[in-house]
Description:
Chain A is mostly helical. Helices cover 68% and strands 5% of the residues of chain A. The longest helix of chain A is centred in the middle third of the chain and has 30 residues, at 123-152. Chain B contains 14 helices and no strands. In chain B, helix 1 packs antiparallel against helix 12 (251-277), helix 3 packs antiparallel against helix 10 and helix 7 runs antiparallel to helix 12 (251-277).
Amino acid sequence: MKNHQPLFHVVKRDHAGPGNQALAYVAAVALALAVGAVLLWVQGVEPITFYKQMLTMGIPGSRYPWRAVENFVRLFVPLLITSMALALAFKMRFWNIGGEGQFIMGAFWAGFAAMKLGDSLPRPAMVLVMAAAGALGGGLYGVFVAALKVRFGTNETLLTLMLNYVALYFLQFFAETKTDWNFFLDPESARPKFAKFPPNAQMITVPIGPFNLNLSLVAAAAICVILYIYLNYTKRGYEISVVGDSPNTARYAGMKVGRIVIRTIFLSAALIGLAGAFHVSSAGILSASPTNDVGWTGIVVAWLAKLNTAGIVAASLLITVLQFGCQAASAVYPSIDANFANLLQGVILFTVLAADFFTRFKLVPRSGKEMAK
Amino acid sequence: MNDPIHVLTLFFFNIVLVNTPLLYGTVGEIVVEKSGSLDLGVEGTMAVGAIFGYLAGCAANSLLVGLVVSFLAAGLCGLLFALLTVSLQANQNVTGLTITTFGLGLYFFVGKGMGERWPAMTSADSLVKGFSALELPLLSRLPILGKVFFSQNGLVYLGIAIAALVWWYLNFTKTGLRLRAVGENPGAADSVGVNILLYKYIHLIAGSGIMGLGGFYMALYMSGSFEGSNCWINGYGWIAIALVIFANWCPLLAILGTLVFGFFNTLQIYAGPLAGAFPGALGWLNVIPAQLYKALPFLITAIVLVASSVRSREGSGQPAALGLNYFREER
Lengths: 373, 331
């Protein structure tokens, strides 16, 4: 019988040096920019000038450079928190792709608190209440999926995916229904339109010279540090990685796997809800599609960073630069918008996914003896 | 105009007309999932198939060219998915979502880049003709049913034919049964000599290609008018993923499922006319918010998912190895 054996074995590597990894990332970004350059050139856009515009994000030479930085921060914070939270779930091999839904629920309940209590509470208390409402709303929306998964083995990937849309249309119902009881809407407007939050429900900003520091950035930084410690230096964090590597090992070691899953997913979804709350309180108003796709982009970021905390900060910075930069550059190039950032993002991730293979596996040539068999 | 029978007929006619892309997407995803791959890139794959199929169809002024190009362009997305997840062992969820991000990015980039050069569908008369109603002899004269099922455009019949063909393929051919073995237990299939790599590649490409045909349908349904803010596919890819579960991975049930989901999908547009035509019986339709109809496919699927996991796994069409990569050395 003829024997069709490939020329190589695929063998798992023990570990790859950090040098190789870094190289893979640089190559990925370079390749994405090169593919992008070809596409731009085909479209008749001068790639170098475009990239210059994109990477400087239109900040130098702008009349209000600090305003641009503030807007950048507003885009950056929700993505950073969401990515950190998703990485927490992914570490446990729990496929929470319901970031969009949890973010929307967080935004909705924060908005609910703002409209109901915004006039009666002082500002610091109000911002805290909104954060708590958002975290609780997002957390509960995620945790019941975790409970179903633990109890019945329900497929969490597909269920969280479905719930994204349920949440979206739930919010849109409030955005588009003009009735007496709908206190979310602007009573002045004849068409359905979200009302602005009372002034006390807007995120606190601290002026530093010409720059207004959005407090949610400080909170996000604190969350990163706390999560880093939680994951690397606490028993609970250790349990997460054991459950992720092998639930059976965890069970033999006497860990209560179900409880760990539920606890961790609540934390993950609550953080995403918190990001939603921060987003709406920074914007000062709800919107019918508040997420800016962070639930999806967060997955890209978490994966790019290999679920590593410092990596997530870097990757979400990179993705925000791409998105914000494309938005800024689109002012000059009408045919290009933030979707170009999605395209680049896709190519970067494809390359990193491909490069991962070579850090996880190695190809071993088959020996002559084996070939002769 | 307000003749109740006429309104009802039109309502059912539109259920079929508007929702056939769902059938293509669902059948394509069933082919993919039966090979054990969970491809969450349906939305992006359909978008890529739609835009390239439409542009090629217009340029060549040929329906056939449009169909072939949309199949191939979407098939390339499937090839990319196969390359990354089958050969390079990348995570399927992440790869699929990236295909969606990338596909939609490409869709808007190409569409916006065309700018003034964007071709109108009226300039390609064979596309217009290809999408116009094709009345089947005799059958189309049946009352109501004739209009609803037998006076549709050719692509509707093609979609149903593909669904039936795939059903036959999966259940009654040797390769189809082997494919299911690959999705259920690749290790066992490999040990009896089934070429796992080849099966996964071919079915990922073919399944994605079928999704692309659905995208092309959507392009024609939207009369090829490109909007910078809304993609033609408009979430159909996600509904298709839901529909696969609802249809229990069976292409024939997918036809039925398309009609059920399509019913709600179309009801949001027809609630007003229906309530007007039957003020007594259906007057309450006006009160139900449109968002509920939009959410229902997802809500129903969520309930189906939970219910089927609560019951025992007996009788579920879900491939046992769905979403798991196959690595031979770990068999």
